[in-house]
Amino acid sequence: MRPLVGVTCDLWGEPGAEREGVNRAYCAAVWQAGGLPVLIPVEAADAAADLIGGLDALLVTGGGDIAPARFGQAAHPQLGRVTPERDEVEIRLVERAYDEDLPTLGVCRGIQVMAVALGGGLIQDLGSESELAGERHDRHGKTPREQAAHLVRLEPRSRLQVLLGAEQIAVNSFHHQVVAEPIPAPLVLAGRSEDGWVEAVEAPDRRFFLGVQWHPEHLWQHDVAAARLFGALIEAAAR
Fold first, then answer.
1. What is the pLDDT of residue 15?
2. Average pLDDT by consecutive 10-residue portion of the chain (239 residues)?
3. What is the dihedral of CA 49, 41, 24, 202, to 10 degrees?
């Protein structure tokens, strides 16, 4: 049987007509790597422990911003859409996944959830830090999702660098927030953008606990590094 991979959902739409779901690209990436994607609704916070016990891996997906109160900050003027219910379930899932050593991959918002869940914070708006950084990293509506936007330099001898077998990779980029430094222990830096922002973190004391700021689910069909990420998640899940 294929390993079961929990895939976190987003919530959107008008009150009374809200929808839950996930971009199909995440499920396609998990399936092609050999896993079986199982969607986790935002209502499942109280069942997080049971869910983790029934999964072989966890994929924390991209989406809107995390409520700043979760990491002790006031809301920035450029704060985007927040979904408190989603924050709650994903933070609980990540905390439990780390404790139980469940293979976990965080994508875009997912890397930010991992950092916040383990005691870290975020830079709420890159464009407010640097106009050039905001332009370089937030490519929503400006470039296709499968098109690379900048390079990421991988930390020497990090698990991510060993897995991908490269010193740097080209990635797409659709975000306006990033993990703030210092990175919270037990996470360590695994990759940094050319202009110095955190792009990947990992927990060396876990089988596979990795977050990336880019969107490999839109790259795996033509990019070996992206395909290897999902392949490694499923390989860890199958052990």
1. 85
2. 97 91 98 98 96 97 98 97 96 98 98 98 96 92 94 98 97 98 98 97 98 98 98 97
3. -30
**Quick one: which of 41, 40, 30, 39 has its CA closest to 2?**
30
pTM of the model: 0.97
DSSP states along 2-29: PPEEEEE-EEESSTTS-EEE--HHHHHH
Catalytic residues: 108, 215, 217
Q: Which top CATH class is 4-238? A: alpha beta
Boundaries of every domain in the chain: 4-238
**CB neighbours of residue 131 within 10 Å:** 10
User: How many residues are recorded in the chain?
Assistant: 239
Which residue in the block uniquely carries the two structure tokens 């999702």? 145
Distance of CA 91 to the CA centre of its chain: 12
CB neighbour burial string for 76-115, b if at least 16 within 10 angstroms, e if fewer: beebeebbeebbbbbbbbbbbbbeeebbbbbbbbbbbbbb
Sign of CA dihedral 225, 231, 233, 239: negative
- What value does the CA radius of gyration of the chain take, rounded to a whole number of Å? 16
CB burial of 52-68 (b: ≥16 within 10 Å; e: otherwise) equals beebbbbbbbbbbbbbb
- Take residue 111 and report the two structure tokens written for it: 């890397």
Gap between the Cα atoms of 208 and 205, Å rounded: 9
Of 60, 62, 30, 55, nearest to 232 by C-alpha is 30
Q: Which ranges in the chain belong to alpha helices (H)?
A: 24-32, 48-54, 84-100, 109-117, 126-129, 131-137, 159-164, 224-238
